[in-house]
Amino acid sequence: MRWARFALLSAALSLASCGGNQSAVDAAGIQAERLESLWWLFLYITAAVYVIVMIVLGVAVARRRRATAASVPETSPDIKRDNRAATIVKVAVALSVVTLFALMVTSFRTGKAIASLADEKPEIAIKITGHQWWWEMEYQDEGNPSHNVLTANELHVPVGRAIKVLLQSTDVIHSLWMPNLHGKKDLVPLYPTTFYFEASRPGTYWGQCAEFCGYQHAKMRFMVVAESPEDFSKWLSAQQQTPPQPTDALEKRGLSIFATSVCAQCHTIQGTGTNGRVGPNLTHIASRPYIAAGSLQNTDQNLAEWIADPQHIKPGIKMPMNFYSDEDMRALVAYLKSLK
Ligand code: HEC
Ligand SMILES: [Cu+2]
Fold it and tell me: Which residue range forms the structural domain that includes residue 176?
């Protein structure tokens, strides 16, 4: 069966673009491993059932033809053969019930095993909020809420540590799915839920919304960066810092445009007195490799195009078009790019 696994795996991998990996049959964590084994078990068993059914069907068709050829009188009741057919059907029904029952039990046990991480009392808690059409990630520091970190469309986790995720939605139902690490989990407005996962292998994995939530549902992706605990701590403490005030003239101009224009109504950059919560927190926007929920790479060019006409890239989102002179746009982009 190795070749089959390989073929499926490479098909799945070739679908995953942009450097990250996105595949449910390439588990990178203990929850996903459980799900992957269950998936393969289901595939093997259902494939076997399919082959058996096809063989039986083939035999039945072939036999029927022979019987006609022998021109058995239509009125003669072939009681003996009927009995045999009835027995076969009974055995088949019994086997189906047993198989389905066994699959149900395994599936149930997998579900229980996946939930077992809760017992480890994870130290890291991340609140993820679904928005049309982006993800807000909040790293919660229970001891010191001023150390909470707000970012978007990007999840950093240390390898080998249990993570607690709190899910909520502000608008419609979304579903968080990072196939390499866990199964789908719904985000239902007014009903916060919790789940646990752990990454066992460093890497970059793509996740996405798996429940149709409106026009830009397909452009609602996020990246999971599983890294060593040291790298994770470095990332987290960098995110906790308030970015230094710009000293460069162009960046200063960018800051004043940002802080005094519409941007501030919807976005927050720590240390600038802005506190909009409609769009993603931009305090460390330059540290994110992608913007607009995985739609664009975070380059100067893309940022400028996004700010000028986000509706062209994601029609229907809450961010309006903005009209700036080339010089103002350069200043704005230079400032945003300084927010490492
Ligand atoms: C009416 C609210 C609103 C205004 C005004 C607004 N934005 Fe946005 N912005 C959003 C929303 C919502 C998103 C998320 C869109 C998405 O990805 O679906 C966003 C996304 C962004 C992003 C991408 C962030 C990321 O991590 O993906 C940048 C950069 C950005 N806005 C910059 C600006 C700038 C600069 C201005 C001012 C010129 C501005 N925005 C004005 C609502 C707004
Ligand atoms: Cu969605």
Answer: 1-240
- The pTM (predicted TM-score) of the whole model is 0.87
* pLDDT tens-digit map of 215-248: 999 999 999 999 999 999 999 999 999 999 999 9
Q: Output Rg (C-alpha) for the chain, integer angstroms.
A: 28
What φ, ψ does residue 193 adopt, rounded to 5°?
Answer: -130, 170
- Lining ligand 1 with CB less than 6 A are 133-134, 152-153, 216, 258, 261-263, 265-267, 278-280, 282, 285, 288, 291-293, 303, 306-307, 314, 317-320, 322, 332
Q: In this structure, are 6 and 95 located in the same domain?
A: yes
Residue at a domain's end among 200, 219, 240: 240
Q: Residue 338 Cα, ligand 2 centroid: separation in angstroms?
A: 31
- For 162, the 3-state DSSP assignment is coil
- Whether 280 and 225 map to the same domain: the answer is no
pLDDT at residue 2 greater than cutoff 80: no
Which of 258, 233, 266 lies closest to 339, judged by CA? Answer: 258
